[in-house]
Design goal:
This protein is α+β, with helices and mostly antiparallel strands and about 150 residues long. Among the domains are: about 5-65; about 75-105. About 25% of the residues lie in helices and about 20% in strands. This is T-cell surface glycoprotein CD3 epsilon chain.
Length: about 150
């Protein structure tokens, strides 16, 4: 048999596994004045305590290390599950939107850049050199010997 411990805010309720009517409680050396099966600790300060309940020769002991707070909110399992599921759905939705928008952007960029027809690439001949700007080759210096620099 085990103790049942319930925590709500700063109130801790301990239920003894004994079913007798007269139960003697003991809390770290002090004996509270209650004979009921449930022992309620108001304004618990989160300090560890040894709790025991006895009736006749039967005695049950427990080490109580309950953390309490004044501004805590109690959440049930269904609410926590709903919050996690909603968070996952939103995250996956954002991932899908980012994927599709980035996919479309890549498609648009390649369509605008490739506006010319995509057939076989034909090789263009090199541009015809302009004879006025031909480089000076060895043995042809006399062609350009008549050109002199002009003074400004």
């Amino acid at each position: 048999k085990e103790f049942l411990v319930e925590i709500s805010g700063t109130t801790v309720t301990v239920t003894c596994p004994l079913t007798e009517d007269s139960i003697v409680w003991e809390l770290t050396g002090t004996k509270p004045a209650t004979n009921e099966r449930k022992y309620v600790i108001e304004n618990h300060d989160s300090s560890p305590a040894n709790v025991s309940c006895s009736s006749g020769r039967k005695k049950y002991e427990m080490y109580l290390n309950a953390r309490v707070c004044t501004n805590c909110e109690e959440l049930d399992a269904l609410l926590v599950t709903g919050i996690i599921a909603a968070d996952l759905l939103i995250t996956f939705g954002v991932l899908i939107l980012v994927y599709y928008f980035s996919k479309d952007r890549k498609g648009r960029a390649s369509a605008s850049a490739g506006s010319r027809p995509r057939g076989q690439k034909t090789q263009r001949p090199p541009p015809v050199p302009n004879p006025d700007y031909e480089p000076i080759r060895k043995g042809q210096r006399e062609v350009y010997a008549g050109l002199e620099s002009r003074g400004f």
